[in-house]
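User: I'll paste a sequence; please echo it back and then give the predicted structure.

Assistant: Echoing your sequence first, then the prediction.
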Amino acid sequence: MINVLVADDELPAVEELAFLLGRDARIGAIHRASSGAEALRTLERESVDAVFLDIHMPALSGLDIARAISRSSNPPAVVFVTADEDCALEAFDLAAIDYLLKPLRAERLARSVDRISELLKDGTPAPEMITVELGGTTRMIRRDDISYVQAQGDYARLHTAEASYLIRVPLSDLEQQWAEAGFIRIHRSYLIALNHVGHLKLAAARASVTVAGAELPISRRHLPSVRDKLQATRIRPQG
C-alpha cells in the first residue's frame, strides 16, 4: 500500500484530492495538512511514500517543502498539484515525478499513482523527470526517453520517440548537468544520449552518428572524444 500526504491550504482541495486517491486500491493511509509547517510535522512522525503538494501556500510553499524533504536520506516521491503552470521549471529542478494541473482529472491522477507504484516496486531511484510543454499543455517526460538534444539559440529541443519539446535551457547547461547520465556533445548544435546511439559512420568528408533513426553530424573538434566514448560502449565505426 502507498501511504501519502496531501498538503493544500484550501480544505476543499485537500478533501477532493483525498477522495480521489481513496478510490485507488493501491493507496493506504492518506494524511492531510493545511499548511507547509503542518506538512513537515506530519512527515517527521509518519511514514509517507509520496507527497501531493500545492505550490502556493502561506509561509512555506510546496516548493519550500520539496526542497526541505529532498535533503533527507530517503525522501518520498513528490507530486505538485497546482493551478499555476509557471512553476513547472522549478518542479523540474526539484526532481518531482509529476506536475498535475487543477482542476484534477481522475485518470490523470491515476497515472501519477502508476509512477509512484512503479518507483516503489522497483526499489530504484526515481527516473529524472523533465517538465515540458506541448500544444499549451504542461507535462513531464523521462530524461532517459530523450535520444538527442538540439540547440536552438538560448533554447534546447528535446527529441524523443513520441515528439520533440522546446525548453528554455541552453545546450551548454544541459551538457554539464547531464554528463553523468550518459549525454555527450558531438557538435555545437547537438547533444546525444549514448544509450540511444545506433552506429557511428566515418567517411572521408564527414563523420556522423545515427541516433533513434536520425543521422547527426559530428564536428572535427568533438570527433576524438565521441569516438572514444562510443567505442567504450562497443559501438564501432562504419565506413
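The chain has two domains: 2-131, 146-238. The two ends are 54 Å apart (CA to CA).
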